[in-house]
Amino acid sequence: MTSLIFTPILYSIIWFERDNHIRTLINLVITSVVWCGIFWNIIIQPFTLVRYLVGPIHNSLICSIDFLLRNVCLMELNLLQVAIFFVRYICMFYVKNPTALQDDFWHLFINIWTIGCSIISQFVYIIFPGKSPSNYYLCIGDYPIGLNGIHVKHNIPHLISILLSIVAFLCARLTNKKAKQGPESLNSNKNTQSLFTFTTYGVSIMLAFLLSYIPTKVNLLGGEELDTYPNYILVYALHHYFPQIIISTLTLTFFHGKPLMRKKVRLKMKELFHA
Asked: What are 125-152's pLDDT values in tens digits?
């Protein structure tokens, strides 16, 4: 239900960015973040729901693809956040002429880089020897007994991307204070206009961290522990409801403090329903 509700709302952010003459490189990268949420809602979340309704898939290839897509989507989200901070810094201090910046080209470049890096690093993580998280074994319906004494392999690339996003956020806070103390033209640079507020920045990083850290506790479970109460309920909640709560919260923060966006979206919705 939440996927059906919030996917159109997420897309309304992309529509607002396209239709209201605020197309900057920062906002183009932000729309890529929104597309990650939409992708999760229409691809990953339905598969998770079906999997828990019908039971294990018993197909290691399908489960590996699902596992890969989940990790790629999460890591790309973190890398896009880092890219937003980096682009903001470049536009604020080095780009004096906004028209000289080829927004579409650099947006494509950033997307290729983040998606490529996410796919390669997570593919290496999956094929690397070791014990996978419990979510993978729940999907295939088989938990090898020989893995009970082995620790779950750590997703080092994902952890690095989270740390980078946190460091980038702190650096962005410092550069923003520096910009406010600088020339007035620096603060009025239209190329630094962003659909994100620093509240949204902070919330998105915190939620990405929680989405990575909390399921780790469940992923350490194995064997008979996964079938005992309340572990199986906790596993379902963290793999199905928890991501939806995070996406819903992040979506609402986009509209926080943006009355123009809320007004435009309401008018658009009325036009669609009365057409």
From this structure: 988 887 887 778 778 877 777 666 677 7
Q: What is the pTM of this model?
A: 0.81
- How many folded domains does the chain comprise? 1
Q: Report the C-alpha gap between 99 and 96 in whole angstroms.
A: 9
As a whole number of angstroms, the distance between CA 62 and CA 47 comes to: 10
Supply the range of the domain harboring residue 224.
Answer: 2-273
Q: Which of 63, 81, 161 is nearest to 118 (CA)?
A: 161
Three-state SS for 50-94 is HHHHHCCCCCHHHHHHHHHHHHHHHHHHHHHHHHHHHHHHHHHHC
Q: What b/e string do you get for 167-197 counting C-beta neighbours within 10 Å, with b at 16 or more?
A: ebbeebeeeeeebeeeeeeeeebebbebbbe
> At 118, which CATH number?
1.20.1070.10
